Automatic annotation (TrEMBL):
Organism: Brevibacterium antiquum
Disordered: annotated segments: 1-26, 165-185, 237-265
Presence of keyword Oxidoreductase: yes
Name of the molecule in the record: Sarcosine oxidase subunit alpha
Domain FAD/NAD(P)-binding: 135-424
Amino acid sequence: MNSPHTSSADTGTRRLPQATGIDSSRPLRFTVDGQAYSGFAGDTIASALIASGRIDCGASTYLGRSRGILSAGIEESNALVRVQPRVAGDVSESMLPATRVPITEGLEADYLSGLGILDPGQDELVYEHKHIHVDVLIVGAGPAGLAAAREAGKSGARTLLLDDRSAPGGSLLSSPGRSVEGGLDESIDDVSATEWIETTVNGFAEAEEVTYRPNTTVFGSYDSNFFVALEDRTRELVETEGTGSGASTDSADGDRDNTAPRAGTRQRVWHIRAKQVVLATGAHERPIVFADNDRPGIMLASAVRTYLNRFGVAAGQRIAIAATNDSAYELLADLHAAGIDVPAIIDSRTTASAMAERVVDTTGTRLILGSTVTGTAGQGPAGRISRVTVAALDEDAVAAGHGEDIDVDLLAVAGGFSPVIHLHGQRRGPIVWRSDIAAFVPRTPVRDQFTVGAINGDYSLEAALKDGAEAGNAAANRTGFAAALTVPKAAAMTFAPARPLWLVTSAEDDHTDLTTHFIDFQRDQSVADVQRAMNAGMRSVEHVKRYTSISTGGDQGKTSAVNAIGAIASILGETDLGSVGHTTFRAPFAPVPFAALAGRRKGELFDPARITAIHPWHVAHGAEFEDVGQWKRPWYYPRPGEDMEAAVLREGKAVRESVGFQDASTLGKIEIRGTDAGEFLGQIYTNGFKKLKVGKGRYGLMCKPDGMIFDDGVTLRVAEDRYYMTTTTGGAATVLEWLEEWHQTEWPSLDVVFTSVTEQWSTVAVAGPRSRDVIAKIAPNLDVSNEAFEFMGFRETTLANGIPARICRISFSGELAFEVNVENYYGLAVWEAVAEAGAEFDITPYGTEVMHVLRAEKGFIIVGQDTDGTVTPQDAGMEWIVSKLKDFIGKRSYSRIGTAREDRKHLVGVLPVDGTTRLAEGAQLITAGTPVTPEAGPVPMIGHVTSSYMSPSLDRPIGLAFVENGRNRTGEIIQTPVAGGLVDVEITSPVFYDPEGNRRDG
């Protein structure tokens, strides 16, 4: 977007002719704090405001001090805005750096004082997630990143280049794009940097396997080269009035349209798995810590250069430069070429470097060596800087005397650079302090990664291009893609050593008084706050960080972290910042909206309801539903005039006296395959499965390592190397993860794999004395007699309607029962076939409530209702299922004293003595005669009720409970509080109905 020049009369802004990043043919209007401004396409809020003469922003968070725009990028800590909704369905966004928000027509924004306002409105825009695998991921599209992407891409390797800026080029975006007298030669391959960038990026569009995404911030780096990034497409969305911009033709997975965000997508979260990674993340410039270093008009030198050359904006008309290194002289050359007055450049070093001498000689600028800015005055508009005080430094970098005052309207500070090592640090990559450049850098890259360019502290263009090209070529080679290496050529550069200034003080200063020597602008934290933390005994940088809150704001310490470490070192008298240490890097690198993380998982999709193939029938027949896990399960089927209790009693009696049917499709189902499947299940379950015969099923119980019940279900042996496991509805995903965890971490040598098939099967449970008659009608080819079809057996057959089915004899009610399993597609058809076949027996659909009642009558537990993570199989009266011949998860725990105590709570039945009171689930049980008064409290509890129902078979309330030493207290009368009084309760066997089990076989 090249712009020849723009006059003030056109837009009300002041522009210089060398802008490389704006389109002057597209003026745009916007407002900030209710005041109208204008700018051009390509401008950020910050650049357009500076062009309009405004550099101040919102006051500081806690102290209310005047602040101004500090930087030109993601590291901004002062200029934070709230942007009003920009398209239909949008909401306002807070805490956005003005340096990163592109202006669009009609944009409305307000400056914030460090605290945002959450919009309570409904965000109706689209947020997406994309999951991809790539050969080479390159983070950063500066010169090193572009060179790496070019070399990796031409090999044919699937290459993804991500950059948080809106345009490629990195540090080159701050260069003038032309030769400047006395400045650096920033041409590449004998063409201007701007032309080289354009040619390189155009080459990406022609490469089959290269994807370049601007405005995409990689914010998380995890094990095995898994990265997460956020792509922001708000500008494109706004410019197309919510319809989305054209789809990109680049591709990271072979489909050239596949990576293009859908129309209307505002933001997209990328989940990336990369074989090789090149980190070309660059470096951020640091401020200098001196008195009143936070005034509007004090700006990073690199930012002044960016605004000057990329946006054609002079941030001031009389600019002093405070330098600690050679980078400041690049800015000096550009300011001189633009005709901007620079009264002095103040360099902390005592000897001028070769670069300093060349630029100063060319520009005629006054050079003040061995000195620094010690203070400022803010008499300009909105507290803008009006004067700097300069003083000489002694050999210990302590200011001597008052020095001189210099009138300015802007101070550019070049305090040194901090390489962006965050993604490297998130992987716990080793970090080392380099005193020659005063920066922390990676000692060595993480496995399968490369670090190139400024992240390594190599700030020369020549080194960045060379390292980037070689890394891109090597990364592609490692993934099996080879190509001839071509290294872009650039002029050799050498930079003299820096003289960092961590703390500008005089010999008389007391650190506790340095309340305006600011380290973290966003948190209003100064040297005095650091000293206060250290006076409290803090020495670790991590402790000081938390005591002061330095580096905990939205900018995450990008400009303050190293300065804080430097201040700690200065107070401790240390010269080696490496001995002080550094903070821990954690994701996210930059703030990420919750809306983006949620993606499409909001509204109905936040917790999507899962329904079975039979669900439409349930709805049509008036079922009431309950949520079990994510499933909608029929709870009961009320007829006109029935309440829940009446419906449940009717459904329960139908099962006990004739036949009922239930949709059991929601049970978890896992296929387990492999030659070692039986052995593996024997380790998972408390009972054995290795010798289970094909065609048979077995009830199994799982325990955690502490011996407590975890899940249960029936597992069928389908073939010698294949099992079909069922789990509780709510526990299916957890059980699958459990199996995978133990296989991968403890028994990886076992030949076994797991596949969730919950949604592949529909299951119809048919229970009751007439269930055999119903199954005989729908499966005429199957002999369903007791002799031919034994309990816990299963048969593969074809139903009368031609549907293949697997029919099992399994009962959770104690009645004769069958389960019909078919492919999910046929679920509704089979359900309707069962309903038709059972019509002559008045077959009745029953829901989960009746299922619970019937199993409670038989004393069967429900994991998660009758258990709570503290129940062993022995507590539940299930010693019979615990093998004494083999090992299994949790077995060792049964030898512990705690699990063998006589007074552990046991599963028992509880019956209200009055025969009418239904106990509350969760009700506490106490020994009869225990006083229940505040004076006698606390009341000792001996147990609690876990299940309580009105029994249709016994025509009275029943309950299950866990009571201390309960099995040895059968017949004892205990009590429970009900409605302000105490009700007598008898402890009984947990099996209330058919204790002999005669009804199981019909």
